[in-house]
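Database export, one record per block. Field names are fixed; values are copied verbatim from the stored entry.
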Amino acid sequence: MERIEELSGESLTSGVVFELHRILVEGTLDDPSKAGIFRSDEDRIIVELFNSPKIAHVPPVAGELTERLDRILAFANGEAPGDWLHPVLRAVILHFMIGYDHPFFDGNGRVARALFYWAMIHHGYPLAKFLSISKVLRAGLAKYSRAYLHTETDSGDLTYFIDFQLKVILRNIAALEEYVEAKVKETHVIEGALRDAPGLNHRQIKLLSHTLRHPGFQYTVRSHEKSCRVVNATARADLLDLA
């Protein structure tokens, strides 16, 4: 996700797609040489129905993948001809396209979801990085599979997949709101406890309150700061005492 954020300001290229694939399959492939490259003709890729040996989808042949990815990239970057499309729909359809083409030996679902996040952030939805799409999809894997299947069996009508994915996004937004609300309440409770904690001065309480809102922040003592209202020795003592 950190790398996706770094890349979100750039256009999507095949190099970016291959890089994300290498990151996402690192340590998971029996043959590491298949990371970051298209599947080959020797790789017999089929998609079976959920909990069934029946074949649901046979992806395009390997020889078509370069041309198909070029078209996907043009679509993702808004360079493909056609009417205007809402950015969220563009992100959802990009997800579908990668899943449909299955361009890699393994890790196609991970790449599809990664590119969904890239598209969302790229088009001005930075909070999308906090949506746990994979968690919801795993919980409803059968519905996820059927969304692909219904689209394919109904002459490529993407309505099924779009409808399913939008519901996933809405569920994630609701879960995120609940999480944020719970964390805010938790922070208020902890701050109340800090104010009543024995042995802490007002500077230490303020410092600890800051850590609740900025996890991972590093605190140091700076010397010769004219604007600093706490002398070096006092600040150092406060930090050392907390440590």
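Remark 1: The chain has a mean pLDDT of 89.
Remark 2: The first strand starts at residue 47 and ends at 48.
End of record.
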